[in-house]
Design brief:
Elements (H helix, E strand, L loop, with lengths): L2 H12 L2 E2 H10 L28 H21 L6 E6 L5 H13 L1 H6 E6 L3 H11 L6 E5 L6 E8 L8 E6 L2 E10 L2 E7 L3 H9 L9 E4 L1 H13 E13 L1 H4 L10 E4 L2 E3 L19 E3 L2 E2 H10 L3 E7 H8 L3 H7 L14 H14 L4 H4 E8 L17
Parallel strand pairs: 2-3, 2-5, 3-4, 5-10, 10-14
Antiparallel strand pairs: 1-7, 6-7, 6-9, 7-8, 10-16, 11-12, 11-13, 15-16
Helix pairs in contact: 3-4, 8-10, 12-13
Length: about 400
């Protein structure tokens, strides 16, 4: 049975599905969902790129921030040395964790010894690949699990996780707010408008979301719930979320009157603008394409603060990574010798690759500005973190 057939079967038995339920099945069906059927979906051979796909540099820079966070916790506990829970949510097959552990082992042996790694991942295929991906670091893995652990003393990190959580789709009509549902006609999936469900209405009212007639948008109560869950999982320490999104004032405005819902397949993006003659692209072949929507950063921050977290920074990825750069890393990234600042750039293959990786992570208009970094703290006060050095958001 195909996933399309399974979804149509559910619709015939229970009636039209909310878009969030449809997206949940399309992405996370345990056997037929997009993320369930492969251990890796990003990179050159996948459907999209993330910061982890441009080499080890992203992981190396993250370690600079994690070490500092460990030192903050160390100063509070005063043990020798205190263990440090490093929890990556949406960890995939462990590629980014491997890059981080490589850097920690090479530069900060005491910190590396303190790390207790947990990888949280819903895809069974990806979890099965984690031990092999970690290689010599496999002994650091305390857990390869589907749901968040509890009592975390350290940092919980997620890179491009919130954008993959199921969203509800709403439309403002002349007669009021309506919700988009997925229905079936024969073997064809289609969208229908219906009454707004109570939890979606509650979210819209709580976040004070306002749309004009004709506007369409995505809301994600699941993201707010997940942030609250992460806050509960953290005993003391930090949460770092990296994702593409907007503040609510921008997300729910004339800038995005048709919403941000899109699919990715073999690095081709389709947002439905030119596809309605044949149906929206997210309904074409469920389970074979990624479905995503931009994150409501305002709602995520409010959920965190309601759950007792303190917002330490919200800034572009470019500024976050610049704050973490060391004298050696920019030199390596740009192909310059740190010993000879005036020297000519090096052009060996490894240096060229790092220079390109640096550009990809930093350049405005790309990952450097489209991706935002939100840092929360719990029980740590308001420390001066290097990643928060540049508090300016350019976009």
């Amino acid at each position: 049975m195909s996933l399309r057939e399974a979804i149509i079967g559910q619709i015939r038995e229970h009636g039209p599905l909310s878009f969030a339920r449809y997206m949940e099945l399309a992405l996370y069906h345990p056997k037929l969902g997009y993320y369930a059927r492969a251990d890796r979906r990003s990179g050159r051979s996948g459907d999209f790129f993330t910061s982890a796909d441009v080499g080890s540099l992203f992981g190396e820079l993250l370690v600079e921030q994690f070490v500092e966070m460990w030192q903050v916790l160390q100063s509070r506990r005063r043990s020798d040395p205190c263990p440090f829970d490093l929890v990556e949510a949406g960890a995939g097959n462990g590629r980014l964790a491997r890059a981080m552990l490589d850097a920690a082992a090479a530069r900060y042996p005491d910190f590396y010894a303190a790390i207790q790694l947990t990888l949280v991942e819903r895809s069974p295929a990806a979890r099965d690949a984690q031990t092999a991906t970690l290689g010599r670091h496999a002994s650091k893995l305390q857990g390869s699990i589907e749901n968040l652990p509890t009592g975390v003393y350290g940092v919980i990190f997620a890179n491009e996780l919130l954008d993959a959580l199921p969203v509800n789709v709403i439309v403002m009509t002349d007669s009021g707010l309506r919700e988009v549902y997925i229905d079936a006609h024969g073997d064809r999936l289609l969208e229908r408008l219906g009454p707004t469900s109570s939890h979606v209405q509650k979210h819209v009212e709580q976040e004070r979301i306002q749309l004009k007639p004709g506007w369409r948008a995505e809301v994600c109560p699941a993201a707010a719930a997940w942030v609250s869950q992460v806050a509960s999982a953290l005993q003391r320490g930090f949460i770092i979320l990296v994702d593409y999104g907007h503040e609510a004032a921008d997300l729910y405005s004339a800038t995005h009157p048709t919403g941000t819902l899109a699919t990715y397949h073999r690095h081709q993006v389709r947002n439905g603008t030119d596809d309605h003659w044949s149906g929206p692209p997210w309904l074409a072949d469920p389970g074979t394409v990624d479905i995503t929507a931009h994150v409501d950063l305002t709602a995520a921050r409010r959920a965190a603060e309601r759950a007792g977290l303190r917002t330490l920074a919200v800034l572009d990825q470019m500024y976050f990574l610049l704050g973490l750069s060391t004298p050696e890393q920019p030199a390596a990234g740009l192909g310059l010798s740190s010993d000879h600042p005036g020297a000519e750039p090096r052009h060996d293959l490894d240096t060229v690759k790092r220079r390109l990786a640096w550009k990809t992570l930093m350049v405005p208009g790309g990952l450097g500005s489209t991706h935002k970094v939100i840092i929360f703290g719990k029980g740590v006060g308001k420390p001066k973190l290097r990643g928060c050095s540049f508090r300016v958001r350019a976009t």
